[in-house]
Design brief:
The complex is a heterodimer of chains A (760) and B (352). Chain A has 760 residues and is of the alpha+beta class. Among the domains of chain A are: 148 residues, Aldehyde oxidase/xanthine dehydrogenase, molybdopterin binding domain (Aldehyde Oxidoreductase, domain 4); 197 residues, Aldehyde oxidase/xanthine dehydrogenase, molybdopterin binding domain (Aldehyde Oxidoreductase, domain 4), CATH 3.30.365.10. Chain A contains 16 helices and 30 strands. Chain A starts with 27 loop residues before the first helix and ends in an 11-residue tail after the last helix. Chain B is α+β, with helices and mostly antiparallel strands and 352 residues long. In chain B, strand 11 and strand 12 form a beta hairpin. Classes of the chains: A alpha+beta (760), B alpha+beta (352). Chains A and B meet through helix 3 and helix 16 of A and helix 13 and helix 14 of B. Chain B: GO terms for molecular function: FAD binding; oxidoreductase activity. Chain B: InterPro entries: CO_DH_flav_C, CO_DH_flav_C_dom_sf, Diverse_Substr_Oxidored, FAD-bd_PCMH, FAD-bd_PCMH-like_sf, FAD-bd_PCMH_sub1, FAD-bd_PCMH_sub2, Mopterin_DH_FAD-bd. Chain B: This is Xanthine dehydrogenase family protein subunit M.
Chain lengths: 760, 352
């Protein structure tokens, strides 16, 4: 039994179907009152504090650490360096599987990016450990580092998590050459960092050769597996608790080097250890979104119909591992063209390995593609929305497969109507607000694949008729505790109050990974299956029991309703769960469920969520300062489990898109490779004043193919489309096409009248 | 964080004595100092906590008509003091355009003057910085310097002063009241801050142990209340330092400018009084031509210190705009987005 406490149910309860209801968060009160226990809130008896010392060079090796000075500092217990670091059973540089990314766990004195851990100081207090780490004053042998895309590149055959780096349909070269009109443009996107509000942390207790761990993770089972492999202990001896995450966005998908170092430090000192990254330390060893330079070529006929699309991405990866942002692949599914070619190239630079970051591939890929499509629409003399509708993909362009469902046309229609798009003048620089600021309107298409992983769930109906559902799922803050509980309750035919829902612990059934926007689909389908299974078992008891009003009802069918099994042909005939179990003399009855993508359906259909985002920006014509004054997004992503949570996910995604378009950029000093804005003051994300008006429209979509629940995913799609919509709106406002993100006022100053202009 | 001694004096005299020791620092709200200490950029051996001192927390009008603001008055309290905001609207607007509500509720007037540059090479202890470690060099030169100075910088330092409040104070000719072991003295704010020259580590005229006890706005500054504005251009609508800002105050009589005050922020190592521009405005009719000429005068000596030539052009446009806004009159109500390009604009200030 997990020791993660069950949560109280929210105040809004409903009998019957819980799916589809806007339940408030079960964890809301805990969070706003500060009583939700995040990993770093755990303080076991005898706890010591571990603090990382990190490299200030980007390439070379550590030649000296003043370990004596650190040790001599009052309160410091131990300094862990490559010299005394306890052994690992598996080399952290060994690729044991494609998801085993190489970690920096003090395996040698090498430095391969700025911010890499080079020692860990353990002390009785956090303050002593911090000062101990500062006292190490490392010396280095420094080699010249490179952190931009200007150097050598290689052809990338594999991108993202194992996707092909190139794909083609039709003959791009011929189709492009013979097209009547051409667009070719290159777009740059910068390195970006996840910046989850909760820093990566770990609290570790070794109990003999067993490990008790509190740490935020988006993948409990994978974290257990990786830890078991690295430490050479069996997975059963590892227990990880992760009830709440303060955001993950992909950076907590896999066990990170610093978390492994926390486990090693606890082993070294023989006491429980807490290790929490500082904000600055999150810029390096826990992943980021690699920078990209994307070239999009579009060939079209005089009528604006696309004949050829090529999308090439040059992106960065580290010197020591491969994760290449699969930005070109968004072009596989969005716009119809007889010839499509997508390619990728990589460049090895002195940075930490890039990693999954919210909408990996689609976010920067859509930024470039949606900008290029807008440029093409203008070249074709068409309204950008009409241009998108003209080139609407009825089937997946790269494969020719039909979509399992696609309500994009409805998204365009409803978003455009709500936004007032029909009033948009085609020419740029033709709208002003009442005070003279330039206004611009832009649109972008949003898309994200419907992904499923594998999961298991356990369902129990107890003697009193109440239920229990268990799954080792993850709530990154997006509301999974609530949405999955809704699915669990429906699976058992009970109200949420009657179902205890347990989650967030590695001793519960494997829920896969909370990533790829696939967690609700994956965990939800397993819960749904577990509910069906336990209800089937209970039905089996009832229909074979002469004392049951359901005796012999097997042929007509039995359904679960409000804690009772009833005949499908006559719901007045049935009996409570408790009565069935009592007669059978059972304390409880258990069922199991599994989920995985259906390979037959996947073979047959392209499965994607879609959306349309409309943006209005205001630009000060003299000062260049930009503000997004309105965002309207309409999205279709299959069945909606909880509209309140889904709306919130769309909001969050769209705000992230705004952030991508106008704000986020990690700025490296090119000479040293160090990131100079590794803090939340200078690595800009939007503040409330940057987001004055935001609307998300949930477009109904039934998908009979994706999974039993018909759920796609909503976590990432909001970013896509939004970036391009904003860039396009800026162009429409100013007539200046900026092809480098983030777009800032300095990009616009040249294109706006200066103070001496007497008017344009 | 290094081990340090914490002293809580009961009087200004005790504070001054305590801070006279080498490597001491005064602690106000600590909104900047503590961050720098946590990052290791500053490592004072002794913190002298001023926040419990009596008598430094009031805003008072003196018999000569000047206004005296105690060093411990909170930024938010000053900006929201109705009487003060009415007499010195540009100061209130500048204050409210800075930081966040939480920071303004904590940060003090004296601390605002004493805050340090946000140059990343100053805060990054692995970088060379002549301010942090005199003689070590300046890694901002040749580095990431988009937001650095275009006026008043030297080859030893190109960092900018981050304050908004001080820009407004500079425009209005504020006086800084200082107390030290040798008694009290007063320094005009234009002389309080020093240019980097060869000694960028020396940012103000304060000697060891000296503390700011108050900031005074002279009586004549209040006469400019009808036409004053602050404008701050930044890369986010709120919670960002200025790329370029300006405070302007005008007296307009019979269709001509009779007095002009102009100070610039975000473009120089100190709040920058643009005296030539002020002189160029006097006697002119308020209008685009005069404002454009003033903008040119304000940046006549400007030169890029790196990848920041755009700030010269931007700075000129900010000056022209803020003068037009000031000429249009102080708004009756503080805009919801103070000093923002997205606050309501008076008619005709946008060049179209």
């Amino acid at each position: 039994m997990s020791d993660i406490a069950s949560l109280p149910t929210g105040s809004r309860q409903r009998q019957g179907s819980n799916i589809g209801q806007p339940m408030t968060r079960r964890d809301g009160i805990l969070k706003v009152t500060g009583s939700a226990t995040y990993a770093a809130d755990n303080n076991p008896e005898g706890l010591m504090h571990a603090v990382l010392a990190t490299a200030t060079i980007a390439r070379g090796k550590v030649t000296r650490l003043d370990v004596e000075a650190a040790r001599a500092h009052p309160g410091v217990v131990e300094v862990m360096t490559p010299e005394n670091r306890p052994p690992l059973a598996t080399d952290p540089d060994e690729k044991t599987n494609p998801f085993a990314f190489r970690l920096d766990a003090l395996q040698n004195d090498g430095v391969r990016y700025a911010g890499q851990p080079i020692a860990v100081v353990v002390a009785k207090t956090l303050e002593a450990a911090v000062e101990g780490a500062a006292l190490l004053r490392p010396s280095y042998e420094t080699e010249a580092a490179r952190v931009d895309l200007e150097g050598e590149s290689f052809v990338a055959e594999i991108v993202g998590p194992g996707a092909p780096g190139r794909a083609a349909s039709g003959d791009f070269d011929a189709a492009f050459a013979s097209a009547a009109k051409h667009i070719e443009a290159t777009y740059d996107t910068p390195p970006q960092y996840h910046n989850a509000m909760e820093p990566h942390s770990i609290v570790v207790r070794w109990e003999g050769d067993s490990l008790s761990i509190d740490m935020p993770t988006q993948g409990l089972a994978m974290a257990v597996g990786r830890t078991a492999e690295l430490f050479g202990i069996s997975p059963e001896k590892i227990h990880i608790r992760s009830p709440f995450l303060g955001g993950g966005f992909g950076s907590k998908g896999l066990a990170a080097g610093p978390q492994v170092l926390g486990i090693l430090a606890a082993k070294l000192v023989g006491a429980p250890v807490k290790l929490v990254l500082t904000r600055q330390q999150m810029y390096g060893p826990v992943g980021h979104r690699g920078q990209t330079r994307q070239t999009v070529k579009l060939g079209m006929g005089e009528d604006g119909r696309l004949a050829a699309i090529e999308h090439h991405t040059l992106t960065s990866t580290s010197r020591f591992d491969d994760f290449l942002e699969p930005a070109s692949n968004v072009t596989h599914s969005l716009y119809a063209a007889p010839a499509i070619r997508t390619t990728h190239a990589g460049s090895r630079i002195d940075i930490g390995t890039p990693m999954f970051m919210r909408a990996p591939g689609e976010a920067p890929g859509s930024a470039a593609l949606e900008s290029a499509i807008d440029e093409a629409a203008f070249a074709a003399g068409m309204d950008p929305l009409d241009f998108r509708l003209l080139n609407y993909a009825e089937v997946e362009p790269i494969s020719g497969k039909p979509f399992s469902s696609k309500a994009l046309r409805e998204c365009y229609e409803r978003g455009a109507a709500r936004f007032g798009w029909s009033k948009r003048p085609q020419a740029p620089r033709s709208m002003r607000d009442g005070e003279g600021r330039l206004l611009g309107w832009g649109v972008g298409t949003a898309t994200f694949p419907a992904i499923m992983f594998q999961a298991e769930a356990r369902a129990v109906i107890r003697a009193d008729g109440s239920g229990l559902m268990e799954i080792g799922a993850h709530d990154m803050g997006q509301g999974a505790w609530t949405a999955l509980h809704q699915i669990a309750a429906d699976g058992l035919g009970l109200s949420m109050d009657e179902v205890e829902f347990r989650s967030g612990s590695s001793d519960l059934p494997n829920a896969g990974i909370a990533g790829g926007s696939g967690h609700t689909a994956t965990a939800g389908t397993a819960l749904h299956g577990a509910g069906e299974d336990v209800i089937a078992r209970l039905t089996e008891l009832a229909v074979n029991d002469e004392a049951s009003p359901l005796y012999g009802a097997g042929n007509v069918g039995v359904v679960a309703r409000n804690g009772r099994l009833v005949r499908q042909d006559d719901e007045s005939r049935g009996e409570p769960y408790a009565a069935i179990l009592k007669r059978a003399g059972l304390a409880e009855i258990e069922g199991r469920g599994q989920s995985a993508a259906d390979p037959a359906a996947q073979e047959r259909y392209a499965m994607d969520a879609h959306g349309a985002v409309f943006a209005e920006v205001a630009v000060d014509p003299n000062l260049g300062q930009i503000r997004v004054t309105r965002l309207v997004g309409a999205f279709a992503a299959g069945r909606v489990i909880n509209p309140r949570m889904v709306e919130s996910q769309y909001y969050g995604g769209m705000i992230w898109g705004l952030s991508f378009a106008l704000h986020e950029e990690a700025v490296h000093d090119k000479r040293t490779g160090r990131i100079m804005n590794a803090n939340l003051a200078e690595y800009r994300v939007p503040v409330n004043a940057d987001v004055p008006s935001l609307e998300a429209i949930l477009v109904h979509e039934d998908d009979p193919h994706v999974n039993a629940l018909g759920v796609k995913g909503v976590g990432e799609i909001g970013i896509t489309g939004t970036v391009g919509a904003i860039a396009n709106a800026i162009w429409h406002a100013t007539g200046v096409r900026v092809r480098r993100f983030p777009i800032g006022l300095a990009d616009l100053l040249g294109g706006t009248p200066d103070v001496s202009d007497k008017g344009v | 964080m290094n081990l340090f001694e914490y002293v809580r004096p009961a009087s200004v005299a005790e504070a001054i004595a305590a801070a006279g020791e080498p490597n001491s620092a005064y602690l106000g709200a600590g909104t900047n100092l503590l961050d720098l200490m946590k990052g290791g950029a500053l490592t004072p051996a002794r913190l002298v906590d001023l926040t419990h001192l009596p008598d430094l927390g009031s805003i008072e009008t003196l018999p000569d008509g000047s206004t005296r603001i105690g060093a411990l008055v909170k930024n938010a309290a000053l900006a929201h003091d109705t009487d003060f905001a009415k007499r010195f609207p540009v100061v209130a607007e500048a204050l409210l355009s800075g930081a966040s509500a939480q920071l303004r509720n904590a940060a003090t007037v004296g601390g605002n003057l004493m805050q340090r540059t946000r140059c990343p090479y100053f805060t990054d202890t692995a970088s060379a910085c002549n301010k942090r470690q005199p003689g070590s060099g300046c890694d901002a030169i040749g580095g990431e310097n988009r937001s650095h100075a275009v006026l008043g910088w030297s080859e030893n330092c190109i960092a900018v002063h981050p304050s908004d409040f001080c820009v407004a104070l500079t425009a209005l000719g504020a006086i800084v009241e200082i107390e030290g072991t040798t008694g009290r003295r007063e320094v005009p704010i234009t002389e309080f801050f020093l240019l980097p020259g060869d000694t960028p580590e020396k940012e103000t005229v304060l000697e060891a142990g000296e503390m700011i006890v108050a900031v005074r706005l002279p009586a004549e500054a209040a006469k400019l209340a009808a036409n004053q504005r602050y404008l701050k251009v930044r890369e986010r609508t709120s919670y960002a330092f200025a790329l370029a800002s300006a405070a302007a105050a005008l007296t307009i009589e019979n269709g001509a400018i009779t007095e002009a005050r102009l100070a610039l922020g975000g473009v120089a190592p100190k709040p920058w009084r643009a005296s030539e521009a002020e002189a160029a405005l006097v006697g002119k009719a308020p209008g685009k031509e005069a404002f454009a000429a003033a903008a040119e005068a304000a940046f006549a000596e400007a030169k890029p210190s790196g990848d920041n030539a755009y700030k010269i052009e931007l700075g000129k446009r900010v000056v022209a705009r803020v003068l037009a806004m000031a000429a249009a009159g102080t708004p009756e109500r503080m805009p919801a987005l103070p000093a923002s390009a997205f606050a309501p604009l008076p008619e005709g200030v946008v060049n179209v």
